[in-house]
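Minutes, methods subgroup
Present: GH (chair), OT, SY

1. OT presented the first of two proteins processed in the latest run. Sequence and structure tokens recorded below as shown on screen.
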Amino acid sequence: YICGKTPTCCIRVRVLVRAPLERAHCSKSIMTTEALPLEGVIGFGGNVRCGLLLHPDGNTLIYPLGSTIVIREKGNPTSQEFLQGHSDKVSCVAISKSGRYLASGQITYMGFCADIIIWDMDTRKLLHRMSLHKVKVQALAFSHDDQYLASLGGQDDNSLVVWDVASGSAKCGSPTCSDSVLCVSFFNRDNSKIVTAGSRNMDVWDFDPVNRKVRPTGCQLGQLKRVVETIVIDESDDYCYCGTSTGDLLQVGLANKLFNNIGPKMKTKRENFSQGILASSITPFGDVLIGAGDGTLSLTRPDLNVFCQAKVSSGITSIVLTNDVFTSGPHAGSFAFLCGTQKCDMYYVRYIANENRLVCELEQTNHFEQINDIAFPAEYSALFATCSGCDIRVWHATEYRELMRIQVPNLTCNCIFFMPDGKSIISGWSDGKVRAFGPQSGKLLYTIHNAHQQGVTAVIGTHDCKRLISGGQEGLVRVWRIGPQSQSMIASMKEHKGPVNSLELRQNDAECVSASSDGSCIIWDLNRFTRSNSLFASTFFMSVLYHPDESQLVTTGTDRKITYWDSFDGQAIRILDGSESAALNALAISADGAALVSGGVDKDVKLWGYDEGHCYFVGKGHSGAVTKVKISPNMKYIVSTGSEGAIFIWEYLNPPIDT
């Protein structure tokens, strides 16, 4: 027995310090890295303009989430399929009139070409990958006969390219105006006419496929200088309606390319929409449907007179019509549509013609900013909680729906934890307070005021539910007694000189370990409230975990390393390269200790064999840094969250056994 360790501990150390030459003789199948299967997502890319699409079958929703495109049945969030092929955030999507093809474009790094992918919607396979635009693909549009695809580059590219859909080759292209161009659309009945518009420009392009040329003709808007955010063309190709950043709605004749009218007109006066017009569509009855930046939905006649309005929670970025249209009977003139918002909510909206009103129903809700933490209840995998911005949300793990939301306005929730008895959700906030909420009612149970001076960054509860440990932005680790009527501080431990990013407890509640941005992890004795050991490295420690047998600690941080430490003497046992290029933010370990999951700024979720130290599976889908990862208590799936506000649920796979 070495230093009082159990034989199990000694065996594990011998395996972990296996020589590199021994590892090189592992079988080839073990040393390969495979894709981690994606089971489901919770989220919607609401900031992508016109990102919400409905397949012509009327039952299939399509929308981007990070670098993934989600395809699911309308009204059933659990029936999800995924298209994965982009290396960065999807910036635009378009579907052909027949529904056979889907096109998607992405953002990439400065100086690199951004990909456009054409997908076959029947087989869900990638047909063509095209690269000509630099940095960003701004907008996409199919011709009415599915023969051509028009694409616009972002402000660093500013060019229009027309592609042949069947072959995936470029037919022709041309630079656009000197100012940025933001939207593009084919005519509804002519595949040789294209409209583009943007910052103080609007052009109608003649596409000549035989001579492989596109020739622009500028539209005359008189003295008007506007930034056009969205365009929609009526069914007969007579007029184009342009929504602008100043809230105007312009009507432009496409035959003579002349400005015709300006709106919107409210009763006797003209009044612009607040925060601009971001989305538009033509209704089945020829009216113009508008979505504004302040959340206003408006129905406008072709003469630009507004006759019906409603409002949703935030700016509307997508509008798509459904097949729910009534042309006869008592509901004649009624129809329905879906709209997506900047805060990543999705609404189902019905226009009731005989009452002249719009009825909005919340279809799907998601986080819209960085998610800071994830927590599972003890030994329960059916639900989990996340925190982002001013709210805490509890999600059903298999139905991908929100069960409860807790909000504290104007604050940021940094961390959450389910107490082991399941009777409270403990949360740490930017105002320095610890708040406990009921997990079913969301009711505030108690508040610990002034728990930390500069915000609470980490919390964890003891297994007997009588004490709570918190870490703060200023570097303090504090222990609190939790009683039925009162909460009091037992001890305040000051060793760290930077924010405490992670806390972990032993099973017997006798020790805890804290990881800090000052480059140290400290093991605390919770009986004497003093330091019993410490770990040091040239990094900002972002996460620390105990192995289930508590013989070792695992840490990660900004040095891109995953380090195994002996929990008795604090010596480093093994150092793994967790990422080739970016810092790591999160770690999770399986209940049996066989697997380790990591996530970081490189946007990948990696599953490692604990003993082998080899990465067996990599999950790609996030478009922002992975902020947290957790393995469900039943070891069926992995939950990861990102800075873009997305929640990805991956299938948990056991690492192969080294034979």
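2. SY then presented the second protein from the same run.
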Amino acid sequence: MMSSTASSGPTQSLRDIVQESLSNVLQNSTSQLPGDKWIVLVVDPQSLRVISSSIGMYNLMEHHVSIVEDLMKKRAPFRDQAVLYLVEPNEESVSRIIADWTPNKATLKQGPLYGNTAFLYFLGRLPDELFAKIKACKELVKRVKILQEVNLDFLTKEAQAFHFDMGRSPSIYPDLYLSKYQTAENISPMQEQMVQKLVTVCATLNEYPHVRYPDENELCRNLAFVFQQKMNEFVGSNDSWWYNGDGLHPNSDRATLLFMDRKDDCLSPLMHEFTYEAMVNDLLNIEDDRITYNSINAGTAKEGMTDEKTTKMDALLNDNDEVWMELRGMHIADVIKVLSSRIRDIVDSNTGSTLNKAAKGKDGKALSVSQMAKALKALPEYREIMSKLSQHMQIAHQCMDVFTKQKLLDLSDLEQTLATGKTDEDVVPTLKKILGEVVTEFRGQPNSVMRLRLLAIVIVSQRGLESQEQLDILLAEARLSEKELNALKNIEKLGCPLVRAPQTGAKGRMGKIRSTKVSAYHPDAIESSSAETEYVSSRYSCVLKAIMEKAAKGELSVEEYPSVMPLPDAEGMLGPSSMSKAKSVRKMTSSSSKWAGSSSTNSQGAKKKAHGGRQIIFMAGGMCYSELRAAREVMADSNMEIVVGSNRFIKPMDFLIDWKNLGRKEA
């Protein structure tokens, strides 16, 4: 009943494999129909999102899909066509499928909704009790040609990233961090569902990974052990399924799956980051990669007038947009430079000489953006590329408009000092001085959410304030509402105290906190030297990046990150420079340049040929966009294939809302 995924090596991206798997589902079904027959595709909400995030609805017609129907709604009959159900393996979806084939007054007269052929595909493992319900429906069983589990119970965010669409509503934070289920033998139903979805990811990738977790994190440990059990069960019940590193595929190594927990780094999701993708998701309204932006309508602007008319336009920012893929990991200043340069290259090109002449008035001055767009209408060969460049220029400038309005340059300098423990001049300031700057920022900031976010950064980055007096002063200046104050207090449920306990003398993995100076959040908090040039506003590097760099080099400490099962060969798991040593690498820091500097980040590292087994990173509690960017950078620098995933990808506001939801009663 369980399917084997396409026999693809690690050179294929996760999204490529998902697209191939879905195409195979459609092809295998339609190939069993006589002649040039078409098929009805019936989906539930989750499978619809799986399709939309990978192959897209418009590609379905190529596979003879005549119409896509919602299982949850009343549907028109197509009695002359076969039906393909692609659904989540849950009680509601199975019951609705059975209802389609259960005789009633209407069907006794006219027959079932669909023809005499049905194909049943489930995104994940179909529980035995639901399989029994299907077998009991005789009208359905006699029409079923294929019943199969396809291991696609997840969404592809991009080529090497996935998520489970879990946690937006309702929040999963109470379940993760307040649940009564605290052992691997007794995890919550939600946590078990999350693990089961992760099994389908590994099954799709043909990976039977070594499983590792932070030694000091109980949630990750529990999830890791339950995953190992579920993965073992999957392998044991699917004899035809193969995995990389099984000895039969000599060109690939076995993967490693590392569980991480959002509460171990509460700072990164809060920081303002000025790469293109992070700014779009933080500052603009974007949902499921869809954004609405203001486009200048050059055709309606009159010569000499500045009140140009704008039109609301929608755009999808995903892997189908090559310009987005190239620019998303760049600093916003570089994005605008690149876009401006590309537009100027077109204007100055030989084939664009007509435009170049048109772009000069009698006085020799360049025309406005709208006049240039109008002139471009005479050059149809440029319409497509100029439309795309113009789209991203508009979106980038919208980001900069918010950046300027919210005065984020000065605010970011304060955030960076708090996170890295140093100013841009490499000076370690006193905590008193920095808190004074925070108070000044509070007094000039009219937005209470921005004040909450900054106060959270102060508390989290310093791992609690030195005294209750400090906290009281900052709370008075922050002027938070009752709901915002409660949300702030809830960070203690994530292990971060509002006020540090006196005389702790703790020397944990993050280092001892100094009482009089600002301290760095993490030993590897300053961006590593892997990037040639960095901006002052981008000095801080997320904790996960340092961990991924160590993992890619084979230098991730097995004491700090043990495995569920013994690793087969210490030397095989470590890099050539480490051999059998299981020690973490030293802190790496680099100097940084000003805002006007340039970044050499390669945002398309996935195009490089990867070596070694896959590194799969799963972040429970939500992965932020700086971590998604970091994964692409580490993959580009190391040539190690990295796949990252989470229950969902979060924006700063999402994270603050999750804090608020920690005020709910324990699950």
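Chair's summary of item 2: The chain is about 40% helix and 10% strand.
Next meeting: continue with the remaining queue.
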